[in-house]
Design goal:
The structure holds two protein chains of two kinds. Chain A contains 16 helices and twelve strands. In chain A, the strands form two sheets. An eight-stranded mixed sheet of chain A has the order 6-7-8-3-9-10-12-11, sandwiched between helices. A four-stranded antiparallel sheet of chain A has the order 2-1-4-5. In chain A, strand 9 and strand 10 form a beta hairpin. Chain B has eleven helices and twelve strands. In chain B, helix 6 packs parallel to helix 7. The interface between A and B is large, with 45 and 49 residues.
């Protein structure tokens, strides 16, 4: 860990450095068919789980990827990890495409899953669990020649399990849910990664324990300069921890920008709808989208949100003369304010682009 | 008497091979007619145990003490026949896992009809008509009664469960984490439906969840449980927005409001873990995790002291506690 800062560096805010770049990534899941239909040449329905997602992750930031279940947020996270083969587009790490051999990359980019109990091997001691990562990567000494035991202890204490020696010989079942999630985090930290991808890291934890785990992630970002992607359905969580928020709908990012902008000045009607259902006092009279979460095997034409979109439903889109486009013409993200992008014709018009109305 | 349900010093002890485990350690609670009471707390705090005790759904060897009066009748002393009659007609439960609570090989309409024919001695035909109107009430088309559970989405199944809970027009509906397994948008739809039904039918409800923000939206009053006891109760909005008990404060902070600058970049949490019901800490059971604990907390067990209008809190820092115990910071 070289945390010594050269005092000679001028105090100019440096251009944010991109760690990971996701470029037009696509993931399709093939539905299954029975043997007989298969022989007759029938193909399973294709599910376009991730359908052209692009964004960059900047060093040291916390980015939240949010949306309903089935929107492709977890699949995107898995694709970044190389756990999910991608069909189109590319993922660049520090400017270079992911190599065929992912082992060195995995050391740099670690994932934390939702359910700590399912992640930990119940028959391994905590020490074994943490040391396993080191052994897989053939690391028997730390950067300054520290022995394995010291590396494991350091990871545990960074994850807030102190004194670490007390945990070495314990088994996952002896720990509480919060402690288990800390073990999972320690397992990721022991490899000294640059990036952590956390898939719903607190949704399986008790309410009072959640804050502690999030505090830990924030502290690690501060102390170690980690870059973190958090996949979540909870916009309140995004508000507490994220620098930037990306909202996904049916395999696409429909809005992305600084958390304050996206959550306080949402541009996309879907983001607004998600914000409307965050429970708060006396709020049950706010509009709620009807219908079920959309089906990625049948992505609507045009703006993929239009069948549920209140702007279309209330006739506002027709008034603005954009309804035909909403229903028929696919659209990409556009920057509407500094750093703040959304993909919505109505928002384009609000920001002075009259051109959107002409078909 | 206007209270539909009254719990008086209810204590529930689970029987395990390692001895008795006290899950509920003396709870008083009342639900008035047409009132929604939210019961909040973390896993293991005893909230679901209370729900099960009201309908006597606990395992046979569980020890339940105190009194549970449902419309003036003590549930704990009911004979089996009377108990069977009271379940669904007096009080019903909407469980958490709607996905698993329905019989997968029976049409959903038949499952609702069964509850009606068993309890109200209604004929098949009558029951069928009632099922149709119940489904409409919960926002499902009548033809859905012919569907099997796998043909419905999670939200629709939960609507069927709600229809079933309403089938025998009970005076009390207990909703135990009715929306936790659902997606955010569907959760909002189901919550709104329950609130509308509650208003329209004048139902009394107990709403159980760990998500305080959901409870504030749906409940008139809140009761916060910790380690088998109620630690704070009062009008929902007041309890959520100006908590008197440090635990309530921590629980409320776990569901921050978007736009509230106090939480921006600063997730708030409690140290430590929820206590093991078999080893509840001495004194105030919350003291090992409490950021405001002082020297009296490990030894003096607080009662629920009056803490403002219609409010009570079990904390030695409440002004009324000082008068009663002489303890204080």
């Amino acid at each position: 860990m070289s945390q010594t800062e050269t005092s000679a560096t001028p105090p100019v805010a440096p251009e944010p450095e991109t760690v990971i770049e996701v470029r037009d990534v696509r993931v399709t899941f093939q539905g299954r068919v029975g043997v007989f239909e298969g022989l007759r040449g029938k193909k399973g329905t294709q599910s376009r789980a991730v359908d052209g997602v692009s964004f960059e992750l900047r060093r040291g930031e916390v980015m939240a990827l949010a949306g309903e279940s089935g929107c492709g947020k977890t699949t995107t996270a898995r694709a970044i990890m190389g756990l999910q083969p991608i069909e189109g587009g590319e993922i660049l790490y520090e400017g270079k495409p992911l190599p065929r051999d992912l082992k060195p990359y995995r050391r740099e980019v670690q994932m934390i899953f939702q359910d700590p109990t399912g992640t930990l091997n119940p028959r391994q001691t905590i020490y074994e669990i943490i040391a396993e990562g080191l052994r897989i990567h053939g690391i028997d000494r730390g950067p300054n020649g520290e022995p394995e035991e010291q590396l494991v202890a350091r990871a545990l204490s960074r994850a807030g399990l102190r004194p670490p020696e007390n945990f070495f010989l314990r088994y996952p079942h002896e720990l509480s849910g919060g402690q288990r999630q800390r073990v999972v985090i320690a397992g990721a930290l022991v490899l000294e990664p640059q990036v952590i991808v956390a898939d719903e890291p607190v949704s399986n934890l008790d309410a009072s324990v959640r804050g502690e785990i999030l505090q830990l992630l924030m502290k690690l970002r501060e102390d170690l300069g980690l870059t973190i992607i958090i996949v979540t359905h909870d916009l309140g969580l995004a508000w507490t921890v994220a620098d930037r928020v990306a909202i996904m709908y049916l395999g696409r990012i429909v809005e992305i920008g600084p958390a304050e902008r996206v959550l306080m000045h949402a541009e996309h009607p879907y983001t607004k709808a998600l914000l409307d259902v965050v429970p708060e006092a006396g709020g049950l009279d706010r509009p709620i989208l009807t219908g079920e979460p959309p089906d990625p095997t049948r992505i609507p034409q045009g703006c993929r949100f239009h069948p549920r979109c209140p702007v279309v439903e209330t006739g506002r889109a027709a008034e603005l003369g954009i309804e035909a486009r909403c229903r028929g013409e696919d659209l990409a993200l556009r920057e509407l304010a500094p750093e703040h992008e959304a993909a919505c014709y109505e928002a384009f018009i609000r920001h002075g682009d009259r051109g959107a109305a002409t078909v | 008497m206007s209270d539909i349900l009254t719990l008086d010093d209810v204590r529930i002890t689970y029987h395990t091979s390692g001895g008795g485990v006290p899950a509920v350690r003396g709870v008083d609670m009342a639900v008035a007619k047409g009132e929604v009471v939210g019961l909040a707390g973390e896993s293991g705090c005893g909230k679901s145990t209370i729900a099960a005790a009201i309908l006597r759904l606990l395992p046979p060897k569980t020890k339940v003490e105190g009194t549970i009066l449902l419309e003036g009748e003590n549930v704990l002393e009911m004979k089996p026949g009377r108990l069977r009659a009271v379940r669904w007609t007096g009080a019903s439960i909407v469980f958490q896992g709607a996905m698993h609570a329905l019989n997968p090989v029976k049409r959903v309409g038949d499952q609702i009809a069964e509850a009606i024919t068993v309890h109200q001695q209604a004929g098949e035909k009558e029951a069928r008509v009632r099922v149709g109107s119940l489904l409409e009430q919960v926002g499902l088309p009548t033809r859905r009664m012919k569907d099997y559970p796998h043909e419905l989405s999670g939200g629709q199944k939960q609507r069927v469960m709600i229809a079933m809970a309403l089938a025998c027009s009970p005076s009390l509906v207990i909703a135990d984490e009715p929306t936790t397994a659902l997606d955010v948008m569907v959760q909002a739809q189901v919550l709104r439906l329950m609130k509308e039904l509650q208003r329209d039918l004048g139902l009394s409800m107990i709403f159980i969840t760990h998500d305080l923000s959901v409870l504030v939206e749906t409940s008139d009053r809140l009761a916060i449980m910790y380690a088998g006891k109620i630690v704070e109760e009062g009008p929902a909005e007041l309890v959520f927005h100006s908590p008197q008990h440090p635990y309530t404060e921590a629980l409320a902070a776990a569901f921050p409001e978007i736009g509230d600058d106090r939480f921006r970049g600063k997730p708030m949490g409690l140290g430590g873990d929820p206590p093991d019901p078999a080893h509840v800490p001495s004194g105030c059971s919350f003291h090992p995790r409490c950021p405001k604990a002082f020297e009296d907390c490990p030894t003096v067990e607080p009662d629920l002291y009056p803490a403002g209008e219609l409010r009570r809190a079990a904390c030695l820092l409440v002004p009324a506690a000082k008068e009663r115990t002489g303890a204080g910071a």
